[in-house]
Structures are given as C-alpha cells and as structure tokens.
C-alpha cells in the first residue's frame, strides 16, 4: 500500500548514495552494491515515496500549496476561455473574418499559456511517471537521488528517457501536444494548400482540453474511479445488450422487410390492401400510370404503388433497435405490421430494464467509494484523496516533522503511513 517517506528512510537513501559514490570496482561489483542498496530500501518499506520536484507538485497537485491551488484555478479559466471562444467563433455572425483580431489574440494568449505549461510539465516529469509496482519504487529512489544532483548512471538515464516517452504517450498529453503543434506549423507554412486545411481541422482537438478540468476536480476523479471499478460488471451488461440488439434487429428485419419487388430491386412493405379493401399506409397513390412502380400485378399501369421498406437489411434494423431500446424513438423508422409493433413494445420494455442495471451497479460502487473516502479521513491536519480505489494520505505542507511522525499509523520510528 502507498506509504510516505519518513526521516529515517531519507537518511538510508543518503547513506546508500554516499556508499555508491565512494565505492569503486567492476561493473559486477557496482551492480551488486546497487542490489544491496535496493534491498535496504525495500526492507524499510519505501513503497511509494513522495517523489517529484516542487515544480511538478506545483503543476500537478493543487493540494500541495496555496499557490498550486491558484495555478489550477488559472488553468481552468484559460481552458474555459479557449473552449468558449472556439464555440462562439462557430456562430455565423462571429466567424469568417468577423472579429478575427479578437479570436487571434485569445488563441495566441491561450496557446502561449499551454505551451509554457506543457514544457514545464515535460521538464519536471518524475522518473516514476506512469510506473507501478517494483519499477515505480526503484524509479522513485532515483528521483530522490536526482533532487540531490549527486548520482547519475546509465540506469538513471534509462529511467529519464523512458519517463519522458511515457509522458509524451499519455492520452491527455497527446491531446495537449496535438492542440498546440498545428498553430506553430501553420505559422511556419506560408503557402496555403490541402496540408494547411488539414492542420486547421486538427485544431478542433483543442476542445478536448476540457477533459483536463477533471484533473482538478475531486468529484470527477471519484466518478472516473467509480467507472473503472464498475468496468467488469458494465462489460457483462454491454455483452448482453449487444446480443439483444443483434437478435431483435434480425427479427424485426424478417417481420418488416416486406416482399421482394424485382423492378425496384428492394423490399416492399405491406400487402397493399387491408381486410376492408382500403389501401394501407405502406402504399402511395399516383394519378394515372406510373412506370417502374413496385405493384406485384400490373405494376406498370396501376395507380397504386408499394412504398419501399426502410428495414432493407439488418444494419438499418440495428439503428431502429438502438433508438427503441434506449427509448429515444426518432420516428424515422417504425414497424407497420402488428407483429412488428408487438416486438417494438418488447424491445422498449427490455431497454428500460437493461439500462437500469448499469445505473444500479455504478450507484453501489460510488456509494462504496464515498464511504471508503470518509473512512480514510483523519482527525485533523491531513488531506486525503482516492487514487485507484486506495486512500492515500498526504501530509499537510504546513505541518511539522513531529506531526508527520505522530500520524505514522503506529510506526512513528519510520515516519510513514500505510
């Protein structure tokens, strides 16, 4: 479980670093000493040290300081301004050369802010970024060494390069760089062409920056954590829905496809005339002869012609099933036959029951997560957050070392909390 490093653990790191700096010998000897060093660290249960430079904590953790909290507010405001300007600019009265100077100023100011933020985050990214388990703990130890500036090795540079690669390939960071680069590429290109138009299309990605707001919202973090914990149950329900959609789409297609009309090379709905001799809604009336109609007898000269069925295959029938099972019902496709209408009622009722199950599952998991968060709340002096279902304790930056040791979960000598 996550633990925060105490004073004795930091002393062990410093002593081991000194031993490694002063030691000489073969590569095997150095690897042996490093293995011994890592064993000492693991033996003292440095499971998840509080690593990362002050700059990284300032940019990523809005609870680390008051200044970091104000920085998160500024980031949210800039993201909101950038997104709102993008939406407003789509209005005909504000686009296409109107207010171009205003939009350019807003875009370049926001672009400068996002560029600086991305560069600082890339520079200060910890070595343990994106890692879990033993590799994360090993990288965290090197992170502590990096802060002292005393230790550099091939392993250190491997962690450094790989952490930057993981940072670059992160989904949100890819959105950031994809939203930033087109502006600079467009600035360097002087001749307009298809490539420039493609770059302008890519700029739409900047609207996805709204997802970054979730990083600063504990409520959204809790909701995302709930969805992750519910994924196993939701995947089972999704499989049931897929099976239901395929089966119902096949049945409704067989019921509503009508008869095959050779002249139109399509399915035609209904029989044309009901029991009382009246033409059904599936038929059109034409004055005079209609060449190429789909009437089965005397088609070329009859004034009444079949209406082509919209349930031409299982694919459009799937669209009808999805809109019906979610109780949306656009009305552009609907069954005409009595059997098809009965099936439509069954699909609607099945949809009500099926859609209620995911809500129930997520509600139960969300309630469990909220109770776990409340159970982790300390008496005073600390802040808590949910991370992957585990309650992590973060020491108050204003707190003293004695308070940290006092709240060490019964292990005041180590100064750490499980």
TrEMBL record:
The keyword Transit peptide does not apply. It is found in: Membrane. Residues 69-363 form the Ion transport domain. It is a multi-pass membrane protein. InterPro entries: Ion_trans_dom, VG_K_chnl, Volt_channel_dom_sf. The chain crosses the membrane at residues 67-88, 100-120, 167-189, 233-255, 341-366. GO terms for molecular function: voltage-gated potassium channel activity. GO terms for biological process: action potential. It holds the Pfam family Ion_trans. Keywords: Ion channel, Ion transport, Membrane, Potassium, Potassium channel, Potassium transport, Transmembrane, Transmembrane helix, Transport, Voltage-gated channel. GO terms for cellular component: voltage-gated potassium channel complex. This is Ion transport domain-containing protein. It comes from Guillardia theta (Cryptophyte).
